[in-house]
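$ ./design --mode recover --in tokens.txt
reading tokens...
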């Protein structure tokens, strides 16, 4: 969360956690690693204790504690993926540091690339009113910070992509007695960063600032102070290139299939909302996300809750087994998109995004799956059978529901404040995905690399109902040497 602070009159925020707390946490994790047989695993390449085994407590089993620890650390992987291509030339200019030390230093650094104010003008429409730095390219940000249809809501927040950066903007709509403004004043205050995982820190600050801009337009002093305090460090050349992570800190290649935990602020938990909203059809979204399909979610404003659904969809595709998924397209969160993003989406092989613009439904070449409210549909004939729930899907959803109920009971009866629905949700699908790919890897390495009914059941799939999904999966992840038993089509 972002909390009020009395340290500086103009800087109305306080970062959590502190650097000292982060360092202490990392030190404790390091001690845990050194005393564990799992400490030989590469950080960022796999989650400690990953994989899946049919024997309880086996070497491939996943423990809740280990995976929870990994989820808290893997947010750094996306920092590297989000870098601008131009940043690579900086990698040779800095001394190599121990990984844990680099992680602490990186967590301490603020990476605010820009801060801006967008307003709605009754004559010109959405306009960029003010920004720092003044020479940064913010073309089109005015249509992301104030989403299409926002005039129907009083407040909202929007996550979005702008080039190689991620943005968060807070919008507010205030009634005014002004004929020029037609009775309403609408503004949005936003920031850009190389990573979306840190944007949540400044949600409260942005909400406060947009209210200030509505009440006292043109009062930019707090925003100027914020930018001076939090701006990203520029390279010695002084140009506008921003380094998204410490160079040479990543000696071990990361598995980009493992998406970071997004510590976002939400009133009741975006994961539980996601499950309640889609019900058992989250299993359909899970399969499509794992297949790296292009998913576009349509919803009228407010946009914020739909951005959370984008994040939840990304969590469905987590994989933490070393080497798995490195050759498939990265499942990229675009968050809110509008018509100005059409050219960018045309070049994307796998993504999940949301929009308030109904015209996107007609652009069938831009997406594989279109989600309108709770209706998941596709125009791809080869994907239509995947929209039907299999017996295994229903069983997995039942197990997920039971685990949620047990967690809620534990929280209510025993005061369990450690476990969260978000961790449960991420871990559930992480284990399921690891289970599938662990089995596929074992079968592929066996003398007879043939998938049978037994091996498919060992993955938690339906030998008959999930056969097409399995064939898509083998093709997507390059398990070309595996044979599929004829029994799977007639079981």
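writing sequence...
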């Amino acid at each position: 969360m972002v909390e009020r602070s009395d340290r500086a009159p103009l800087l109305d925020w306080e970062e959590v956690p502190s650097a000292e707390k982060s360092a202490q946490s990392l030190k404790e994790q390091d001690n845990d690693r050194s005393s564990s047989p799992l400490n030989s695993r590469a950080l960022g390449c796999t989650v400690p204790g990953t994989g899946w085994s049919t024997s309880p407590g086996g070497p491939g089993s996943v423990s809740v504690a280990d995976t929870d620890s990994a989820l808290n650390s893997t947010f750094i992987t996306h920092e590297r993926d989000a870098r601008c291509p131009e940043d690579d030339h900086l990698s040779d200019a800095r001394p190599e540091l121990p990984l844990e030390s680099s992680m602490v230093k990186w967590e301490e650094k603020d990476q605010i690339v820009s801060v801006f104010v967008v307003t709605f003008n009754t004559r010109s429409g959405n306009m960029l009113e003010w920004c720092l730095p003044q020479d940064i390219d913010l073309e089109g940000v005015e249509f992301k910070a104030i989403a299409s249809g926002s005039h129907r809501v009083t407040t909202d927040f929007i996550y979005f992509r702008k080039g190689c950066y991620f943005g968060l903007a807070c919008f507010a709509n205030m009634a005014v007695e002004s004929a020029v403004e037609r009775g309403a004043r609408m503004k949005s205050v936003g920031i850009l960063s190389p990573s979306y995982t840190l944007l949540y820190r400044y949600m409260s600050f942005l909400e406060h600032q947009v209210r200030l801009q509505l009440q006292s337009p043109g009062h930019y002093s707090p925003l100027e102070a914020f930018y001076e305090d939090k701006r990203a460090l520029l390279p010695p050349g002084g140009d506008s290139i921003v380094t998204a992570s410490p160079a040479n800190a990543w000696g071990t290649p990361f598995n980009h299939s493992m998406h970071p935990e997004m510590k976002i602020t939400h009133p009741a938990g975006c994961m539980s909302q996601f499950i309640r909203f889609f019900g058992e059809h989250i299993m359909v979204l899970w399969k499509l996300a794992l297949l790296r399909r292009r998913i576009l979610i349509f919803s009228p404003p407010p946009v914020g809750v739909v951005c959370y659904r984008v994040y939840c969809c990304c969590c469905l595709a987590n994989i933490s087994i070393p080497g798995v998924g490195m050759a498939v397209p990265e499942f990229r969160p675009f968050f809110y998109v509008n018509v100005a993003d059409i050219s960018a989406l045309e070049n994307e092989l796998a993504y999940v995004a949301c929009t308030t613009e109904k015209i996107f439904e007609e652009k069938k070449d831009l997406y594989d799956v279109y989600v309108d409210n709770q209706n998941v549909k596709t125009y791809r004939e080869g994907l239509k059978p995947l929209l039907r729930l299999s017996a295994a899907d229903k069983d997995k959803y039942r197990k997920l529901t039971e685990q949620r109920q047990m967690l809620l009971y534990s929280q209510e009866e025993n005061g369990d404040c450690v476990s969260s629905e978000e961790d449960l949700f991420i871990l559930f699908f992480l284990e399921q995905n690891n289970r599938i790919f662990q089995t596929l890897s074992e079968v592929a390495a066996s003398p007879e690399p043939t998938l049978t009914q037994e091996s498919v059941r060992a993955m938690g799939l339906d030998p008959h109902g999930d056969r097409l999904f399995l064939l898509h999966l083998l093709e997507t992840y390059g398990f070309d040497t595996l044979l599929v038993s004829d029994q799977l089509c007639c079981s």
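exit 0
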